[in-house]
Design a protein that fits this description.
Blueprint lengths: L1 H10 L1 H18 L1 H4 L37 H37 L1 H15 L3 H12 L3 H27 L3 H8 L4 H37 L11 H8 L8 H28 L7
Helix pairs in contact: 2-4, 2-11, 4-5, 4-7, 4-9, 5-7, 6-7, 7-9, 8-9, 9-10, 9-11, 10-11
Length: 284
């Protein structure tokens, strides 16, 4: 099975490219102190706004140039991968678990619980995602923990609605009715029979949501309501460079490219997982 999946990944060139991008990002995050040529917060005003090394005015010591405080952009991008992956993965896990459990319970038991959960999701969906996150962050204040908390709170709705819809179909199938007739407890039916059939869908959605959470974290940090400025993140790099777009394009361009490539890689792998895990969409 593993060999077959690997062959499918190699066959799908776009998915393979996405997997390579993700691998590079993950390795960079884990081994940031090894790959980073400088401390990400080390500044040298004598070297501020140096262009990339291939520019005539650039320096070979700073491959991607420096920012307005003389900090090495490549080092800050490498360390920024840690925050992006941390926020993306943790928020997806927290919101995914919470939303999945609520969707399972609401779809299986129906009645008041289901109606209450659906009204709650409808109210939350009435607010734009980023606007709701901004409103909560303005109350809680900036910080990594608050970013993870807010994105988890605002991200559970998709999982809940998706899982509920799947459960409404699965609960009417013969194997679920047979389990009920044999006297199995509801908990065993929900988590032992229904959840395994919903899990592939959750994995695909969760993979794609990691990319959304990375963009959301960068957006909040760019607006000054995300991670503290002392921590190097891609969003803070974009915010720092917005005043130098015309004079020092590299300050914003390279972290923007890092965000774009990471999100693209995750989406490409997510599309491939959808085809692998869903037999209805599996390609030949």
């Amino acid at each position: 099975m593993k060999n077959k999946t690997l062959k499918m990944l190699i066959k799908r060139k776009t998915a393979l490219a996405g997997a390579i991008i993700i691998l590079i990002v993950v390795v960079s995050a884990i081994l940031a102190p090894v790959f980073s040529p400088y401390d990400p917060n080390e500044s040298d005003l004598n070297k501020r706004l140096l262009p990339p090394s291939w520019d005539d005015e650039g320096s070979s010591e700073h491959l991607l140039g420096t920012d307005h405080l003389g900090r090495d952009i490549l080092s800050r991008i490498i360390y920024g991968t840690r925050i992006s992956l941390l926020v993306g993965i943790i928020t997806v896990l927290l919101s995914g678990i919470f939303g999945t459990v609520l969707g399972l319970l609401g779809g299986y038991y129906r009645g008041f619980l289901d109606s209450f959960l659906m009204r709650l999701t409808e109210v939350q969906l009435a607010f734009p995602f980023i606007l709701l996150a901004l409103a909560i962050m303005s109350v809680l204040g900036p910080g990594l923990r608050n970013v993870i908390l807010v994105l988890s709170i605002t991200g559970w709705v998709m999982y809940s609605r998706l899982v509920r819809g799947e459960v409404l179909l699965l609960r009417e199938l013969e194997y679920v009715k047979a389990a009920k007739a044999l006297g199995q407890k509801n908990g065993k039916i929900i988590f032992g029979h229904i959840l395994p059939n919903v899990f592939p869908t959750i994995v695909v959605v969760g993979t794609l949501r990691v990319a959304n959470m990375i963009i959301a974290e960068a957006s909040l940090t760019f607006l000054g309501l995300g991670v503290e400025s002392r921590i190097p993140t891609w969003g803070s790099m974009l915010a720092d460079g917005r005043g130098y777009i015309t004079s020092a394009w590299w300050v914003t361009a390279f972290p923007g490219i890092a965000i774009m490539l990471t999100v693209l890689g995750i989406n490409l792998v997510g599309d491939w997982l959808r085809d692998v895990l869903d037999p209805r969409l599996k390609t030949s």
